[in-house]
Specification:
Strand order of the largest sheet of chain A: 7-6-9-8-10-11-12
Largest sheet of chain A: 7 strands, mixed
Number of domains of chain A: 5
Largest interface: A-B, 98 and 98 residues
Distance between the termini of chain A: 34 Å
Radius of gyration of chain A: 31 Å
Shape of chain A: flat
CATH topology of the largest domain in chain A: Rossmann fold
CATH architecture of the largest domain in chain A: 3-Layer(aba) Sandwich
CATH superfamily of the largest domain in chain A: Succinyl-CoA synthetase domains
Oligomer: homodimer
CATH class of the largest domain in chain A: Alpha Beta
Number of helices of chain A: 24
């Protein structure tokens, strides 16, 4: 049996396509598909199938696909749900290797639809056939002039041919992206919609594009991934193949995640995990679908990007002021031109003008085009400049200037973003760039996205090939685990995991009465902390169940009484059966370390500012477990609290290396336990002048596995 | 003598215009101006003036404007700098009331150019004449078909007529905004560029637009304001007149501020002060010039905005998922439809689909247009919905759906943002909306800006007319001030200001020797703090010149020695002549309160998270002084640390009212001292369970006034 990529290759590059539910009426799905197939001039054989068998658009049609007696590479089914099962059986009998199911109302409607969807997959499996969809809009292959889709975007003619591979879970978003590409001079090797991914899924199409020679960059609109770890492996293959991989993923908000589910039955998963996965695997994460096309087109035109420090050129002094503001707000950096570049620019730029951003407007008339060209040449040749950003405003000799800028950009290969601030007024200049194949952008927001994507891709290109980090061996973990219950753990139980991972905790003891607590406190030494150990109290501080800085036996007894009374007031009331008596440790910086199991990407490890800052700072860093010390240090240094740890404003240095090591250990623990560890929080973890200590811990183990 | 607005009214709506430096060569400034004047069909009289006096474009020309023997309302001067003085003298002699100087290379080049610029203003003043520019591009008045500008944007024909008044310091940005307006169906009452604002400035033009009946909203691109307080007064008049005032201001970054100076000799001022001023005075601050036109056009079409909770409708399930994510990321809120709306929607929306955002795609065929129309009608009629946001993606019957959406939006008056995600593919639908005068947007970023602008304007409309806050009287302030030096104050000196404003400080004393400090510490009571009182040590903590928690005489002596040794190691070394001995106060929440003098907007008062959080949280709120208790409370509640003050996560409540009162007092102090107080910082100001106390203070008084 041929592998998936082979099946997809012949489906996306077919000699013969069948349309089940073909029609002469362009108002129907099967009518639009036929219309587009014929209109765009697909040179292969088209086999229309419909119940009455009358010719369609001059092509002989069949009542049953088996009657065609020809090898079909791909069949598109655009028929009502109630006829699908029969039609699929016929395709199976006709040995069609791949079917595209446009019909909607399956898993996205809930359980009943999901059951009918499983039935389709069952039929396909029985016949050794693969499915794209259901609830998709088909695909296009502009190189074959093949539009096997009902998307009305294909009313356009010709379809934009190029080297971008597009995978979209949404048919109408594919349409918007195709329309945008056609407008800005980008084009596709193929665009494939996958809908509900009942059988073939994003990763299958991605694998096809990685091997497809016509594809030089890959764009994906994702609502949910069926296999996060496979996606990350393929992302690594994209990087090795030199094909930038860009993605827009729905579900960064609760509402967006909910909608993704109701749209293509996709589970969006944790967006934080998605972003961490992108960073780890070199996926360029974009928040706007049309702009993703701009970014990919740019990366195909300018594949070599050393860094993203920007030199701005514009003939408008006002525009460059605003551009400088926007670059700064987007966290992008202006290049500092080298001294020889500065000297050369000064021969025609007045002394009062800054050199970057550079206003090339209003220079002496004879400099006109020459100044614009020379400025670009000088800044492009400067190794301190990673990206040249030309912001085009109305100016005399605009078309000629823009044409020369575009030609020089493509010839010199320095990544060059050309942004037009006027609208259709300067469409002549846009046409000139499209003609020579130079990318351009129409809005500042999108230009900033392209520069950010270039920065991200420069990082992908320059990232050292990390040796796969060896997971930290946690020898006693299985032993520790056997003694623990499932579900939410008490603080002491959670700490036994922490101890197994080799992270220190304060001296502490369990006490079952006030007097027991007093004895423990004397043993540990005053001052101490007293905390309720009840499994049911999650936010102990909020419940008044944590008493700090107890200095004497009497204070311990009073604290016990107060905790007891506080828990009794809870709704429902909680019985105080035991407390943790803990050594009181002062000073240090409060952090949080944690682990989460993500259904898409597996074990995650998290660090952030702890204590009361958790809520107000919202300052966390997150990555996939396991993690190396090097990567842990890099990640922790992105935290806002990092300067506090490293001794900002005269504060004592904290033991950063011990924190890094604890982060690695929590990662090792999370990796070793896998899906068995639902979540773990060490909060606060105190980073002291020497060492770290976990003052509190919470954990939840999966109830079934 | 007529007032400025009268002069501007007849200049912008002239019967006769003169062009000094008129030419037949469209490559020259004076040639383009003549070409545009004639091409657009200005019906008034045109008086070309140039040295040879030959007719231009069929119009009789003059060697000297005085020869024309006709009353000129406005003259545009497009001549080399060396001829300007003579030409202005001639205009003055010909009693021209207003001249527009296009010529550049004046104050933006530095001191020498500024001197020449002052000479121009002097000539104008002598003749009782007013100037627009220099370094501007003139203006247009589409209602008169008058293009008195050299901007090549006016190659377009016709120019977009409408009700937006535009003021721009940049000529080429005016061009981009005109081009954008023409594309999206917006138009102008007039567009005026002001360049270097040597004489007439933004506020003069603004005042004209406030009084101009054809103008219903005003847009400004600002590089620098000449008179911030006047601008704020005019902003209040805009609000009273029901004319939304929108502004893009360059200079939010250092690079942007620097470029504004080199472009139109403008001092950008503090951007934080600008943003605070916008909030106080109801100016809608936008970061993108073309989008500002979208926002203003929208506010003119939908002038009544109750609130900005959004209902989203789209025929694309993928698009609404992404839209929900983008709204959330932009801090915008989805509306919760009322139950009757929900019930009515459920009659045609499947149960599995969320109702907001609402996917109206793929509904049963017979519902087609009807579903799209009904959904809009139901959500528009719902008072929980402030703004309807229709995201148009490719869908069958698109043009007809969009036309009906547009008509219903204009008829129903519920503010409706229509966004097109496909490009030119759906230009037919765009044309349909332009035809009926319904605004639309082409990019999600811009749609979000429009919704944000609508939210801001809803706040302007609903803001209670704050009674002008009576400045807090600070009775002893002049007495306190007389005893203080100018320049940087010591901690004790700064605290005498704080005390005069009625803000508590800890018990403290000055000590001139270690033994003196011991005596003071005993008097105050242990534990104490010891701090160097040297004027030259600004960051005392960094210099090791603050010793906390001293518990005994010996610890005070040791601390004195350490501070002394530490200061001696400074470069240059500092002699320890005296220290402050201060009561040690524990607990509470550390805040910062401060005041700044801003050259554009006057006294500002600032609050934020204090201590080490100042740097890492970057959490400050800022407003113009003086300030009422009500406004102070509102502003403080926007701080990230606010939940900590009000007792988040079981922390003790802090005395928020005392903090509010201290904020008002610092505002009163800043207002009373005016430019004499350059800056003041109380950091940390400790907010205790009862009251606040300023632990440390820094202040700088102006050295000359």
């Amino acid at each position: 049996m041929p592998n998936v990529t082979d099946i997809l290759r012949s489906a996306i590059n077919p000699r013969t396509v069948a349309v089940i539910g073909a029609s002469s009426d362009p108002a129907k799905f099967g009518g639009r598909v036929m219309q587009f197939l014929v209109k765009h001039g697909y040179a292969g054989r088209i086999v229309p199938v419909n119940p009455n068998g009358a010719p369609i658009l001059g092509l002989p049609a069949y009542r049953d696909i088996r009657d065609a007696e020809v090898a079909i590479d791909v069949a598109l089914l655009a028929i009502p749900a109630q006829h699908l099962v029969a039609a699929l059986e016929q395709c199976g009998a006709a040995r069609v290797p791949c079917c595209v199911v446009v019909t909607a109302d399956f898993a996205e409607l809930g359980d009943e639809g999901a059951a009918r969807e499983r039935e389709l997959v069952g039929i396909a499996k029985r016949h050794g056939m693969r499915l794209i969809g259901p609830n998709c809009l088909g695909f296009i292959n502009p190189h074959l002039k093949l539009a096997l889709t009902s998307s009305i975007a294909l009313a356009m003619d010709p379809m934009p041919r190029g080297s971008l591979g597009l995978i979209s879970q949404s048919g109408s978003m594919m349409a918007s992206m195709i329309s945008h590409a056609a407008d800005c001079g980008a084009g596709f090797s193929a665009c494939v919609t996958v809908g509900n991914q009942a059988d073939l899924e994003i990763c299958d199409i991605l694998e096809y594009f990685i091997e497809d020679e016509a594809t030089r960059a890959i764009c994906i609109y994702i609502e949910g991934l069926k296999d996060g770890r496979r996606f990350l492996e393929l992302a690594a293959r994209c990087r090795d193949a030199g094909k930038p991989l860009l993605a827009v993923k729905a579900g960064s908000s609760d509402a967006g995640a909910h909608l993704a589910r109701s749209h293509t039955a996709s589970l969006a998963g944790s967006h934080a995990a998605w972003k961490a996965a992108c960073r780890v695997s070199g996926v360029i994460n974009v928040d706007d679908p049309e702009s993703m096309i701009d970014c990919a087109h740019f990366l195909v035109c300018f594949p070599v990007i050393a860094h993203a420090r920007v030199a701005v050129i514009s003939p408008s002094g006002g525009t460059i002021a605003v551009t400088a503001d926007r670059l700064a707000a987007a966290g992008l950096e202006l290049a500092e031109p080298r001294s020889q570049t500065r000297d050369a620019l000064r021969t025609f730029v007045p002394a009062a003008r800054p050199l970057n951003p550079l206003d090339v407007g209003g220079l002496p008339r004879e400099r006109g085009i020459s100044a614009a060209e020379d400025a670009q040449a000088l800044l492009s040749a400067d190794s301190n400049v990673g990206i040249v950003f030309i912001v085009v405003a109305t100016t005399p000799q605009l078309d000629e200037k823009v044409r020369r800028w575009g030609q020089a950009a493509l010839a010199g290969c320095k990544p060059t973003v050309i942004l037009f601030t006027p609208g259709t007024l300067v469409d002549g200049a846009r046409a000139a760039l499209r003609e020579i194949g130079c990318p351009y952008i129409d809005r500042m927001d999108d230009a900033l996205r392209v520069i950010r994507a270039a920065r991200d891709y420069a990082r992908v290109l320059s990232a050292p090939c990390h040796a796969p980090s060896l997971p930290l061996v946690v020898p006693d973990i299985e032993t520790a685990l056997r003694s623990l219950p499932r579900g939410a753990l008490t603080e002491s139980e959670a700490k036994s995991l922490v101890r197994a991972a080799g992270i220190a905790r304060p001296a502490e003891a369990i006490a079952t009465s006030a007097e027991d607590a007093v004895l423990a406190a004397r043993r540990i030494g005053y001052p101490v902390v007293l905390k309720a150990a009840a499994r049911t109290v999650v936010h102990k501080s909020d419940a008044g169940a944590v008493k700090l800085g107890l200095e004497s036996d009497d204070e311990v007894r009073a604290a016990w009484r107060e905790i007891d009374a506080g828990l009794a007031r809870q709704s429902p009331p909680v019985m105080l059966d035991c407390c943790v008596v803990q050594q009181m440790i002062c000073g240090g910086v409060e952090m949080i370390l944690g682990a989460r199991w993500d259904p898409q990407f597996g074990a995650l490890v998290i660090a952030g500012a702890g204590g009361v800052l958790v809520e107000i700072l919202n300052d966390t860093a997150l990555t996939l477990a396991p993690v190396t010390h090097e990567r842990a240090r890099e990640l922790l240094s992105t935290l806002k609290v990092w300067p506090v740890l490293t001794g900002a404003r005269g504060r004592t240095l904290a033991d950063v290396e011990a924190l890094v090591d604890a982060f690695v250990r929590v990662g090792g623990l999370a990796h070793a336990l896998g899906p068995r560890l639902v979540e773990l929080d060490l909060n606060p973890l105190l980073v002291l002048g020497k060492g770290v200590v976990a003052l509190d811990a919470r954990a939840t183990l999966a109830t079934m596995n």
